[in-house]
Amino acid sequence: MQPYNTDNKGSYDYEARTVPGDGTSGREFGSLLGEFFDQGKRLIRAEVTLAKTELREEMTKFKAGGAMLGAGAVLLFIGGIAFMLFACAALAEVMPWWAATLIVTVLFLAVGGGIAYVGIQRMKQLHAPEKTIQTLKEDSQWASRTFQSVKSQMHGHA
Question: What angle do CA 18, 24, 25 make, to 5 degrees?
Answer without folding.
Answer: 135
